[in-house]
Write a sequence for this structure.
């Protein structure tokens, strides 16, 4: 009887068409191991690149306000400002630059131009020294005129300082000290140069750079670990300059209670609330408690505030037989009697010979562009400057 033979099982490794010794399994393990090693190398390379990026942040080595190479180039190209040339060479065809007065100018980034050369970058201490020179020897100088030219020179050189700070990623106390002086200078300029022709002073450009520097400064306060004694001042200045801004208000609300409840910030919040409620009488009353720099920050909102006051009174005292004393109105407007009368007439309101204002809802009219000169109504700001010097104002010593 034939026995049935059970078929013999053959493993994959013993098949005639399979490689011997489990080669497929070994090959698979080697492939996975190779992929793991490649991933590890990729991560290590990435970390190495990041570390190199941290180590290659440019560090300035220039110890003068203007790099020697730039000074030579600008001398050769006759591009020195009159504030930078050697004294007594004003009428020379190609004057030499004074290394003690020349300041690095702002230059736009250009393709192929190396902006990270250490010899062209000023370290933080030199940048702060440069800013102090621009304030003390240029902006505050009683001999340099006109101030529109002074402003243009300082504005450009401050942009150059900011450019060096960005390239070197400057932070900490030096960064804050530079930004605080820059913000004060731009706020002061927005008041002093109000009404100047656009070819000499553009308020929009000044505002753009002021907002950028102020935003950077406020970020430094939030992210920094040091103690900043002027933080209360600049938190209030930011809100006063940006009255009615939801973003500025939100920023103040997110401050620590210690800052938010400080007298300076509390006063700025009260003025902002009066502005939002369109209560010009209360706003102008509170504004009398501001110091000079705070008044400069508020200054750009005063024209709209006074306009609202006259409009409200034109509706409230709209009567043929009603007369309002000009002296009382001048006090409410924080103006002297004469500019108060001029302001009323600019809005179509009658001021009679008895120095009384005849308010009329129908007679109120918006002045045409150019008829209302803001600098004629600066009483509330100008009276606070008194004997303060520009260097004291910008350095924060007022």
């Amino acid at each position: 009887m034939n026995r049935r033979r059970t078929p013999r099982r053959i493993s994959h490794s013993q098949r005639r068409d399979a490689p011997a010794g489990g080669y497929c399994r070994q090959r698979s393990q080697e492939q996975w191991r190779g992929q793991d090693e490649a991933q590890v190398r990729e991560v290590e390379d990435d970390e190495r690149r990041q570390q190199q990026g941290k180590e290659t942040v440019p560090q300035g080595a220039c110890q003068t306000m203007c790099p020697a190479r730039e000074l030579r180039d600008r001398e050769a190209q006759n591009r020195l400002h009159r504030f930078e040339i050697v004294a007594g060479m004003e009428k020379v065809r190609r004057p030499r630059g004074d290394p003690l007065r020349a300041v690095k100018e702002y230059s736009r980034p250009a393709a192929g131009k190396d902006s990270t050369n250490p010899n062209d970058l000023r370290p933080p201490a030199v940048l702060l020294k440069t800013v102090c020179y621009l304030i003390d020897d240029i902006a505050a100088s009683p001999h340099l005129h006109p101030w529109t030219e002074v402003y243009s020179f300082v504005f450009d050189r401050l942009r150059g300082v900011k450019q060096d700070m960005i390239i070197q990623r400057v932070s900490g106390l030096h960064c804050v000290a530079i930004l605080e002086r820059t913000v004060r200078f731009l706020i002061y300029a927005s008041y002093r140069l109000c009404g100047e022709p656009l070819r000499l002073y553009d308020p929009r450009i000044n505002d753009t750079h002021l907002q950028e520097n102020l935003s950077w400064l406020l970020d430094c306060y939030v992210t920094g670990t040091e103690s900043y004694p002027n933080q209360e001042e600049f938190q209030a200045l930011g809100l006063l300059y940006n009255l009615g801004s939801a973003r500025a208000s939100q920023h103040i609300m997110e401050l620590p209670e210690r800052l938010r409840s400080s007298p300076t910030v509390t006063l700025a919040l009260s003025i902002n609330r009066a502005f939002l409620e369109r209560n010009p009488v209360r706003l102008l009353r509170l504004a009398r408690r501001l110091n000079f720099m705070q008044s400069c920050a508020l200054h750009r909102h005063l024209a709209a505030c006074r306009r609202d006051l006259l409009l409200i009174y034109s509706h409230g005292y709209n009567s043929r037989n009603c007369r309002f004393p000009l002296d009382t109105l001048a006090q409410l407007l924080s103006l002297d009697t004469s500019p108060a009368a001029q302001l009323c007439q600019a809005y179509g309101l009658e001021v009679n010979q008895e120095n009384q204002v005849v308010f009329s809802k129908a007679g109120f009219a918006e002045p045409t562009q150019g008829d209302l000169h803001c600098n004629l109504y600066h009483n509330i700001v100008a009276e606070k400057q008194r004997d303060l010097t520009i260097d004291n104002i910008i350095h924060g010593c007022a």
Observations:
- Residues 23-55 form the longest helix (33 residues).
- Residues 303-395 form a domain with the Arc Repressor Mutant, subunit A fold (CATH 1.10.10).
- The first strand starts at residue 324 and ends at 325.
- The CA atoms of residues 244 and 273 lie 8 Å apart.
